[in-house]
Amino acid sequence: MTAEVTKAARLVARAAAGSPGAEVPRRVCAAVREGLGVDGATLSLLTDTPSRQLLAASDDAALQLEEIQFTVAEGPCVSAARTGEPVAVNDLRHELTPWPLFGAMTREKLPEVRSVYALPLFFGDYVLGSVDLLATRPGALDEEALEQAADVADAVTAALMPTREMLLTGNEAPAWEPEPVVRAHWFDTWRAVGALAARRRVTPEDALALLRAEAFRTGRSLPDITTDILRDPPGTS
Q1: How much is the pTM?
Q2: Average pLDDT value for residue range 55-74
Q3: CB burial string 17-53: b at 16+ within 10 A, e below
Q4: pLDDT tens, 202-212?
Q5: Which of 56, 123, 218, 223 is the most buried (most CB within 10 A)?
Q6: Bridge partners of residue 125, in order along the sequence
Q7: Same structural domain for residues 91 and 204?
């Protein structure tokens, strides 16, 4: 596994060096997945805050794992970002987790996922975000590999730094690819939060809580609910 970790860090650096700025998150995410031999990966910034921002997801399952954690506000990547420590769930099917909502929703929506890992992304002493990894086999990364994977996380941070002004866009539309996915799973969600807060005369934090509650109650994704809110005229939601 040491060789795989070294390979992954090298692939991340190579992917970033040869990519236009808008392509860096997607290509870095693919390099992490390939290098560590897992089945999916995601990158996110500000992972444990209401301002969480999706950067990239390697495939539909990884994207859904990200959606679940954003919806229930708990899970491996949230804990990794909050504590600054790697997090491992080696067998999601048989292992109790400290995140009851995350565990239940992941088993229901992604029964093929057996193990999940999360690595914090550091910028100095500050946790910038996290990398999520998923695999369809239990125990995909052993303890030694998870410790060594910090080198991969450092490579990811180094790869993202030259594009940081593009990634931290504030209220602007996302400038990185795939733009439609990032827009649906981050930018439009925050537009909907603002619209709902204005209509209900509540804080953005309360509006986000309402969206999350609706997603959990109905089983719909946040992007679906977001689409409805942005489509409806004021006073109808």
Answers
A1: 0.81
A2: 90
A3: eebeebbbbbbbbbbbbbbbebbbbbbbbebbeeebb
A4: 988 888 888 88
A5: 56
A6: none
A7: no
Say how many domains are in the chain.
2
Cβ-contact 48, 78 below 8 angstroms: yes
3-state secondary structure of 177: coil
Q: Is residue 174 part of a domain?
A: no
Question: Which of 23-32, 66-75, 104-113, 189-198 shows the lowest per-residue confidence on average (mean pLDDT)?
Answer: 189-198
pLDDT on residue 236: 43
How much is the average pLDDT of 47-74?
Answer: 85
* Tokens 């060789």 belong to residue: 3
120: preceding bond cis by omega (within 30 degrees): no
- For the chain, helix (H) and strand (E) counts, in that order, are 12, 5
Cross-strand pairs, 116 = 89, 134
Q: How many residues does the chain have?
A: 237
- Identify whether 173 is part of a domain: no
At which residue do the structure tokens 């794992």 appear?
65
Strands 87-89 and 115-123: antiparallel
Segments of 180-228 assigned E as strands: none
Shared domain for 196 and 101, answered yes or no, is no
Domain range for 122 is 2-167
Of the listed ranges 91-95, 116-120, 208-212, the one predicted with least confidence: 208-212
CA 161 to chain centre: 18
Angle, CA of 182, 186 and 192, to the nearest 5°: 130
